[in-house]
Structure to design on (278 residues):
């Protein structure tokens, strides 16, 4: 069944081959969600490295996505255009729904109960589309779509928890990588340790990597990197007579004044005060 409601910027279909339409929708500025049924193909094709549940997968694509892997069939396809939210929900920020930028191998694998909830949300949106037009219809559609997105975030958070042991290994690898970079004393030669660089090291998408740190460390990459740089600075100030300008260069800070500002904010002392005290 194909319900294409251009006036609302929505597209809903079921039990189809989503490959022809997904690319068109993404090029047209739509956010796309594909709920795949359970199958052995689903586990192998998307590179699943950790088995949560076998009830299928939810893959999400943001506008303009370069589609490298799209399933050959899905039980629900749902897409919406962000223009649908214009002037209705100004507080909604699609940047909060980071799963739209995850790689296919980072898809959500819902439990049977979670899958039923997702289907119920999509079918509820479909029913509202058929409801006679009135002044409540647009607002109700917005709320139902937001509910679907929030449920997806909730289930992804569960997935991060159930993958705790696997994620601990990824985070440990990340921490070792940052530590080696900071203590190498070749920061300027090796360049900035960016989020993209770390994500590539772990073979993750940027969005998934950032969420992994949020749930696993409670910090962003930049925050964690800065903390490790400060720890390295404290060790050098304590054990050597290194000049401040050289220390700043080795750790990759843009200027001595900025380094001193951050150092005092984190320790309560200027670098020279810290050196004297220790």
């Amino acid at each position: 069944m194909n319900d294409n409601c251009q006036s609302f910027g929505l597209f809903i279909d079921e039990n189809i081959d989503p490959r022809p339409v997904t690319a068109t929708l993404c090029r047209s500025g739509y956010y796309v969600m594909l709920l795949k049924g359970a199958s052995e193909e689903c586990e192998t094709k998307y590179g699943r490295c950790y088995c949560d549940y076998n009830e299928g997968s939810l893959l999400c694509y943001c506008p303009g996505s370069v589609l490298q892997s799209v399933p050959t069939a899905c039980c629900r396809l749902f897409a919406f255009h962000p223009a649908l939210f214009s002037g209705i929900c100004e507080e909604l920020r699609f940047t909060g729904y980071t799963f739209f930028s995850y790689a296919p191998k980072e898809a959500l694998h819902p439990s049977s109960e979670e899958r039923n909830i997702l289907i119920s949300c999509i079918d509820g949106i479909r029913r509202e589309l058929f409801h006679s037009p009135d002044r409540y219809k647009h607002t109700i559609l917005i709320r139902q779509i937001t509910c679907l997105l929030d449920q997806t975030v909730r289930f992804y958070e569960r997935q991060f928890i159930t993958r705790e042991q696997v994620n601990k290994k990824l985070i440990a690898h990340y921490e070792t990588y940052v530590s080696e970079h900071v203590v190498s004393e070749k920061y300027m030669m090796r360049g900035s340790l960016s989020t993209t660089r770390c994500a590539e090291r772990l073979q993750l998408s940027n969005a998934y990597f950032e969420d992994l740190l949020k749930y696993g460390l409670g910090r962003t990459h930049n925050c964690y990197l800065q903390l490790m740089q400060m720890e390295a600075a404290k060790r050098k100030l304590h054990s050597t007579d290194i000049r401040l300008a050289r220390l700043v260069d080795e750790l990759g800070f843009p200027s001595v004044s900025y380094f001193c500002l951050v150092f005092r904010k984190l320790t309560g002392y200027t670098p020279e005060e810290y050196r004297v005290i220790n």
